[in-house]
Amino acid sequence: MDAERLAVILATTLVLLGSSKHYTADAENRHVFLDWEVSYAVRSPLGVARRVITIDGRLPGPLLNLTTNDVAHINVVNTLDEPFLLTWNGLQMRRNSWNDGVAGTNCAIPPGENWTYVFQAKDEVGSFFYRPSLGLHAAAGGHGPIRVNNRPVIAVPFAQPNSEFDVLIGDWYNMDVKEMKGYLDRGRDLPSPDGILINGLGPYAADFTFKPGRTYRLRVSNVGTRTSLSFRIQGHKLLLVETEGTYTLQKHYASLDVHPGQSLSVLVTADQPPKPSYYMVVSSLFVEPELFGVANVLYAGSGGPQPPGAAPLEDLSSHNGYNRSMEQARTVRMNLTCGAARPNPQGSFHYGQINMSRTLLLRNDEAGIGGRRRCTVNGVSFAVAATPLKLADHFDMVGVFVVISGRPEKRRQPSLGTAVIDARYRDFVQIVFENRLPSLQTWHLDGYSFFVAGMGWGTWSPDARSTYNLVDAIYRSTVQVYPSAWTAVLVSLDNEGMWNLRSQSLDRRYLGQEIYMRVSQGSSEVPDPRDELPMPPNALLCGKAKSSKIGQA
Fold this sequence. Notes:
Layout: H1 3-17, H2 20-24, E1 31-43, E2 50-55, E3 64-67, E4 71-78, E5 86-89, E6 114-120, E7 126-132, E8 144-149, E9 163-172, H3 177-185, E10 195-198, E11 207-210, E12 215-222, E13 229-233, E14 238-243, E15 246-253, E16 256-258, E17 263-269, E18 278-284, E19 292-299, H4 322-331, E20 358-369, E21 372-377, E22 380-382, H5 389-394, E23 402-404, E24 415-417, E25 419-424, E26 428-435, E27 441-445, E28 450-457, E29 475-476, E30 478-481, E31 485-492, E32 497-503, H6 506-510, E33 514-520, H7 548-551
Parallel strand pairs: 1-4, 3-8, 9-12, 11-19, 20-26, 22-24, 23-25, 25-33
Antiparallel strand pairs: 1-2, 4-6, 5-7, 7-8, 9-10, 12-17, 13-16, 13-18, 14-15, 14-17, 18-19, 20-21, 26-31, 27-30, 27-32, 28-29, 28-31, 32-33
InterPro entries: Cu-oxidase-like_N, Cu-oxidase_2nd, Cu-oxidase_C, Cu-oxidase_fam, Cupredoxin, CuRO_2_AO-like
GO molecular function: copper ion binding; oxidoreductase activity
Protein name: Monocopper oxidase-like protein SKS1
């Protein structure tokens, strides 16, 4: 390791920990150093060659395997011919939106250069994933799994499984990203995807080997472009145990819906009669024609997989009903008695007894703006600024973004804008997502998880609070909003920074369905490092922040 890079790592680590005194006391926290090379490759998972993005030549990329409170140092080398960023879907990046890896917080890594992310998996456990965040890069791959394991002193609420598998599922297009952009830029919707991949492989190409009588943890994430998926294993029950860092009330399912950007963990026991193979089936929801991704679940010692199509895939066309899907979502609840990252029970935070400071109502829609079809939030279609909003806020720049109310404005004409909602640190806020469109939406909030308190059909009103789950609602970071319906979440704003609130459908985000929340104490003073870390010494500068005057600030 060269001296210059070592100096950057040491300085960044001291910033992350707050002071050299804290660094000395940091012996119990493990530091993980990784070098990842981002490059193009050609793959043909569905028989049609196309250019993809790989991490270290792999799709999916390597596992980021952490334990609670580990500090990750990930040096990303960009060998693409265009700027690149990675974001860490579901990790809360405590006090550290500087390393969130989206266009509103970070300057992109230029072609041929590198940048080191440094962040701590502070007080977290669970199953997550990383992916590219610029444009439609994520539709070309570049994703990989993240595990944050419990510290040995914290018990998990189930017997230790014999082994674990990361299962990254998603829809796939044979067209390349440039062609996808052409569809969207011309005001057209993307066609139906060409298929479903499981760990980057097409139907019947992926294998998972089980030993009879043993139990396995499968960490499943939907990393696709825009399609909700049904996940199941023929003849086996799925015991849901975790969603995006929260241990769930344990319940068996025959199949589970996994919407774009969502992650979950299930336990599966190899308790069926041995035969050459069972099928892991991932099928599309709410689109036609129905698509299937299939992997082989092999029982050790029972021979190789069946020939493709040797056994029928059960007909689950009834699963395409939105009512059924919402009912399943309501059964996913928090385990109140177990600990997670800390020993105190998950249910010790009585969110239902806290007075709400404010309600944000975010209504997604579509509109023609400047002769182009755009996606909007409260009438504003997000325009990505040349200067990251976090840098603009740090350097008190004007004219980079506009602050909006967080409520629909009756007289507002649809328009482009770089919109930010101001929110006060430590407020307890309700966010209502209202979807008047005929397609399902998924929303993700960086920097936080939230309690999914309620869902319902039609238009939300304050009276809907009487239907909320105020006891054991699931606590996660990505939530679905059904067509002509609403979803209400409750969030404690205990993480200062500039945080991206976005659609997890890549096409809708590309067309402007995102916004940022600036969580601060409302003071012009430099934040206390105990609340928000200072700008890291290796921060890239771009846009208006690239001037020599600011660069020396």
